[in-house]
Amino acid sequence: MNSNAPHPWRDLMANIPFNQELGIEFVHVDGLNCALRLPYRDALASDLHTQSMHGGALAALADNTFGFAVFRRLTTHRAFATLDLRIDYMRPASPGQTITTRAECHHVTRSVAFVRAVATDEDESRPVAMATGQAMRARPSGSR
Predict the structure, then answer these.
(1) pTM of the model
(2) Are 118 and 124 contacting, i.e. CB atoms less than 8 angstroms apart?
(3) Residue 82, number of CB atoms within 10 A of its CB
């Protein structure tokens, strides 16, 4: 895993079985931005003839990247869950290429965090997808 992520972030990533199964890897954490990548393999293809990454795999990558971006932004670490995830697919991923998603948690209210992201393959000038989403923050322990 090629990463400049702080050691606890790599450890956290390594302890999520779903991410391990998909093969999601950390790329970096930079300020409030977070990037994860998903290397291509045939098991994640939408079509073996085109070798393009399946939209569901891209959605899972975006959701995970959102989660890490939200976690990075929160000043008090409480549980949160994806409330909404919208992905606008702009073009098929290039055959056999790794997808990298970069996300930023750009706004946080008392109960909701707002995130946006871009997914690219090796051609970073042409996004594969753009995504937006919200995560609902859990109430602090003991609050009603």
Answers:
(1) 0.87
(2) no
(3) 16
